[in-house]
Write a structure and sequence with these properties.
By secondary structure, the protein is of the alpha/beta class. It has helices at residues 38-45, 92-95, 136-139, 142-155, 170-181, 193-201, 214-221, 243-246, 268-272, 287-295, 314-326, and strands at 2-5, 13-16, 26-36, 59-67, 79-82, 85-86, 106-107, 119-123, 127-129, 162-166, 185-190, 206-209, 229-233, 252-256, 276-280, 308-310, 334-337. Helix 1 crosses helix 11 (314-326) and helix 4 (142-155) packs across helix 5. The protein binds zinc ion. Zinc ion (ZN) binds next to helix 2.
């Protein structure tokens, strides 16, 4: 069984390693496709530094090749989403059998081994069977849809609420589409024209450039009320305190993403406006709902222009895309196919 790992920054190495089902509740999955995200590229470059070596790639789909005798929801040939975040199994909540309340959730590709490998062995509980109507490439976004749903749960806003979303990468774009699905009114804000135009192609009606007119434009769209709440997606080029200018008094600002860079923020405007600042990350509670949303076509992923590359090109892909990211270019997620 082959794995690809980052032993130290700017290196991708592959090696053979045995993988076998160890317990009756485990299944062995042939990984078919993984998502290569800018976060993986940051780990490759060393601008995000987990404990190396790391097997990268957080999001994966595959087909069960062997199921332990006590597996109930999957069997040989079941197509599955392999959960990107799993409970730690060690904290107080996990030991009490309440993994959903785990205080130390482990993300694949960062805190634990990721899925750039031809086989993965995991507990059946970490697999979600996929309906035939959800393609492999759409299913790679289950974790992101799930994260966005957790953000929407946190905001718990009534229908018709204006919500400013900072950052038009995959998370910001999908979040806006889901807000529309839930009858909210997202306003997507970015510095990058290309991302704003992709968002418009996804049916996101209000898109704004983050420039000196931003507050005035948000005020105009919201009839002078400003956005009731804002969501700031991590690793976008805008300042982390920009949402404080566009959020109404008493609103909430959610910071979300796969991880957070160190950032400075001027808190005074947030304190003056009595804003609530909070975070949503590594939330797997909505995986089943996310699959259902993909079945119902609540999200249009086609305009994201997902490219697919064979695993033989993985090394070249990491290096060329990481260069583009370092040069400040708009680098999208892409798919690595392991078939
Ligand atoms: Zn735990």
């Amino acid at each position: 069984m082959r794995i690809w790992k980052i032993p130290s920054p700017k290196t991708l190495a592959s090696e053979e390693r045995p993988e076998a089902v160890q317990t009756p509740t485990q299944a062995k999955v042939k990984v078919t496709n993984v998502l290569l995200s800018p976060y993986d590229l940051r780990i490759w470059r060393g601008s995000v530094r987990p404990n190396y070596p790391v097997i990268p790639c957080r999001f994966a789909v595959g087909v069960v090749s062997e199921a332990g005798e006590n597996c109930i929801s999957v069997e040989k040939n079941t197509r599955v989403y392999i959960h990107d975040t799993v409970p730690c199994g060690k904290c107080e909540a996990c030991c009490a059998g309440r993994g959903e309340n785990c205080s130390d959730r482990q993300a694949a590709g960062t805190d634990r081994e990721g899925y750039l490998r031809d086989f993965a062995v995991t507990e059946e509980a970490n697999l979600s069977a996929l309906p035939p109507s959800v393609s492999d490439t759409d299913a790679l976004f289950v974790g992101i849809v799930s994260l966005c749903e957790a953000v929407i749960d946190r905001l718990d806003a009534p229908k018709g609420t204006h919500i400013a979303v900072f950052g038009g990468g995959e998370i910001g774009n999908i979040l806006c589409q889901l807000l529309i699905y839930h009858q909210q009114v997202p306003i997507l804000i970015d510095t990058d024209e290309e991302r704003l135009s992709v968002a418009a192609g996804c049916g996101i009606y209000y898109t704004l450039k983050a420039d000196e007119e931003l507050s005035a434009n948000v005020s105009r769209i919201t009839g002078g009320h400003m956005a009731a709440h804002s969501v700031f997606t991590s690793y976008n080029p805008m300042p982390a305190d920009l949402p404080y200018e566009t959020t109404a008094v008493g609103g909430t600002v959610v910071y979300t993403g796969f991880g957070f860079p160190s950032a400075k923020a001027s808190l005074k405007p947030a304190l003056d406006r009595r804003l609530t600042l909070t975070t949503v990350t590594n939330d797997f509670s909505n995986n089943a709902a996310a699959i259902n949303l993909l079945v119902n076509k609540a999200v249009n992923l086609a305009p994201l222009g997902l490219e697919i590359f064979p695993v033989a090109e993985a090394e070249q892909l990491f290096s060329s895309r990481a260069e583009e990211l370092a040069a400040g270019k708009n680098v999208k997620c892409c798919v690595i196919n392991l078939m």
